[in-house]
Design a protein that fits this description.
By secondary structure, this protein is α/β, with parallel strands linked by helices. It has one domain: Mannitol-specific EII, Chain A. 36% of the residues lie in helices and 24% in strands. The protein has five helices and six strands; from the N terminus they run βααβββββααα. Strands 1, 2, 3, 4, 5 and 6 form a six-stranded mixed β-sheet that branches. It is globular, with a radius of gyration of 14 Å.
């Protein structure tokens, strides 16, 4: 399947939704922002605002049923990724016109120019691989989703300290 260019190592500790139910793009972005907020401690409204701003520049649905909404966020100190497989495809305004059933939210620190682009390239490369897309769609749970997107699943750590 996916080798070193996978992106499981970027996925936040609880940032996986194996069967997300939503009916539209706005709802999807809102849920992803909420998941990212829970992982980072940042405001869901700030995350959603930044992701929506990026979407005004052009759709992040790049084809094959996949989308990579992304944004740079002030106050974030590392790249954070949230992965969702939708229970049913939705209209996303993707470049190829196909509905989206796989979404990967990428958030980067505001000043993370090269790191943001490298993470975006890794995710994009993985999601352009038909075998990876098939594995994501066939995954039965969060662990299988992480295995589908490459190495790093076994070493995922929560981003925020867990209270004792």
């Amino acid at each position: 399947m996916q080798g070193v260019s996978g992106f499981a190592d970027l996925v936040a500790g609880g940032g996986v939704a194996p069967s997300l139910v939503t009916t539209d793009k706005a709802g999807l972005l809102q849920v992803l922002a909420g998941m990212a907020a829970a992982e980072t401690g940042l405001s869901a409204s700030l995350i959603l605002e930044r992701v929506r701003e990026r979407e005004t520049l052009g759709s992040t649905g790049f084809g094959g049923g996949a989308a990579i909404p992304h944004a740079r966020i002030p106050g974030l100190d590392q790249v954070v990724v949230v992965l969702a497989r939708l229970a049913a495809p939705i209209d996303y305004g993707a470049l190829d016109g196909d509905p989206v059933d796989i979404a990967v939210l990428l958030l980067s620190p505001e000043g993370a120019g090269a790191d943001h682009l490298k993470a975006l390239a890794r995710i994009s490369r993985s999601l352009r691989d038909p075998d990876v897309l098939d594995a994501i769609r066939a995954a039965g749970d969060s662990d299988a989703l992480l295995q589908a997107i490459g190495p790093g699943a076994a070493v995922r750590l929560p981003l925020r300290p867990v209270p004792a």
